[in-house]
Amino acid sequence: MVSIGSISDYQGNQGFAAYCTSKGGALNFTRQVAMDYALHGINVNAVAPGFIYTPMTDIYDKNTKAKFAAQTPDGKWGTPQQIADAVMFLSSSLADHIHGQSILVDGGWTLGVFTQP
């Protein structure tokens, strides 16, 4: 099982209290279910996307998107395919000994404050 979280699993986002709370709860649910089912050979993990080009992020204008990209260590937004790739990894036998983890696919956003040189 692979749940989809968010960078909001790990940090707050001003004005998004309900969203951040729900994402944090979903991550803890993932961890608990992983504990309950690991002995049955069922892997339960999560993927936590950062800023990804989706209809949900269309609320941001071009300037805001550029600002967020500039604050991301790799300097860009992610793609839905990158999220799918992480889900595929966690769904494969390559992840057989991974339980209750969340892979951040965020271009390094959650590493901390970043200022481009």
Spell out the helices and strands N to C: EHEHHE
Domain count, please report it.
1
Radius of gyration: 15 Å
Architecture, CATH level 2?
3-Layer(aba) Sandwich
Coarse shape: globular
Q: Assign the structural class, choosing from mainly alpha, mainly beta, alpha/beta, alpha+beta, or little secondary structure.
A: alpha/beta
CATH class: Alpha Beta
CATH superfamily placement: NAD(P)-binding Rossmann-like Domain
Residues in helices, as a percent range: 25-40%
How many DSSP-defined strands? 3
State which percent range the strand residues make up: 5-15%
Counted by DSSP, the helix tally is 3
- Span between N and C termini? 40 Å
* pLDDT averaged over residues: 91
Q: What strand order characterises the main sheet?
A: 1-2-3
Low-confidence stretches: none
CATH topology: Rossmann fold
Care to describe what's here?
This protein has 117 residues and is an alpha/beta fold. It has a single domain (2-107), classed as 3-Layer(aba) Sandwich (Rossmann fold). Helix content is 36%, strand content 10%. The protein has helices spanning 17-37, 62-70, 80-91; strands at residues 2-4, 45-49, 102-105. The chain starts with a strand and ends in a 12-residue tail after the last strand. 22% of the residues are buried.
Key phrases:
single chain; 117 residues; alpha/beta; Rossmann fold; 3-stranded parallel beta sheet
Q: Layout of SSEs?
A:
Elements: E1 2-4, H1 17-37, E2 45-49, H2 62-70, H3 80-91, E3 102-105
Parallel strand pairs: 1-2, 2-3
Can you describe this structure in just a few lines?
The chain is an alpha/beta fold and 117 residues long.
